[in-house]
Amino acid sequence: MIKVKACTRYFRVSIAWLALLSLSGVSAQVSEKVTFGHWALDRTEVTIGQFERYVRATGTVTRAEKEGGGFEYGAGWERRPGWSWRRPDGAVPASADLPAVHLDFAEAQAYCRWAGGRLPSGSEWQKAGFTELRSSPPAPWVKGRTYAWTTGDSPQGANTSDTDPWPRAAPAGVTRAGVNGLYDMGGNVWEWTTDAQGSQRRTVGGSWWYGPVQMKSDVQAFKPADFYAVYIGFRCAFDLPSPT
Ligand SMILES: [Ca+2]
Fold it and tell me: Which of 109, 113, 119, 174 is at a distance of 20 to 30 A from 238, taking alpha carbons?
């Protein structure tokens, strides 16, 4: 379970990615949601900055804050004192665009309700994540095609435990845009869905902790709904008025 990355290769890849990102100019001009007819999905995982606005508006104090800190996997699940969405890794986060984590299912759902939406179902998430639904997608995306990965034909460009520029979580919009122009559907942090097995809820997409195989659509990763950890986040779905 230990994440190892070769330093020399890491820096070489980082330089290549920085050059690529400087050319692509992602995130600045794109809307925050991707629309699929009667519903929409957040383009990125919900960020610390977005969650902070919710906390300021509602006075919410999360369970990780009240209960002594969020969890990270070490020798089993270990509570990390002081870790919460405010300090995902125990320190002031480098960017407000990092994903909001250390939130259980109900806390994620409460945020989405406040934002006018809800958590997606597993099937909604899966369709948006793997099947290109845009009417005129930019190259190389093909309308109607279902891809093997959320990033297309390969997992390259996602933030997993494989060699990439991100040792832990990555800020929104810096990884490679995937199917439907969505970011981090695979990798970065797991995302809560409403799929239930008793008191458990399905998380999808894998995370920076795991290899790319956890990104696949058929992964069934259910977690206790009241669990929160450093690599579980979420994004919201929104029901839209039907076209008349
Ligand atoms: Ca994700």
Answer: 174
Asked whether the predicted pLDDT for residue 63 surpasses 70, the reply is yes
Which residues are placed with Cβ below 5 angstroms of ligand 1, an ion? 184, 188, 191, 205
Which pair of structure tokens corresponds to residue 58?
């509602």
Q: Tell me which DSSP letter residue 46 carries.
A: P
d(CA 51, CA 36): 24
Read off the pLDDT of residues 129-159 as tens digits, 9 standing for 90 and up: 999 999 999 999 999 999 999 999 999 999 9
**pLDDT tens-digit series, residues 223-233:** 999 999 999 99
Full set of structural domains in the chain with CATH: 2-239 (3.90.1580.10)
Using the mean position of ligand 1's atoms as its centre, give its distance from the Cα of residue 38 in Å. Answer: 23
Amino acid 21 reads L
Largest alpha-carbon pair distance within the chain? 57
Q: 143 Cβ partners below 8 Å, 6+ apart?
A: 132, 133, 134, 135, 136, 137
Residue 4: both structure tokens together: 């190892």
Query: With 80 as the cut, is the pLDDT of residue 67 above it?
Result: yes
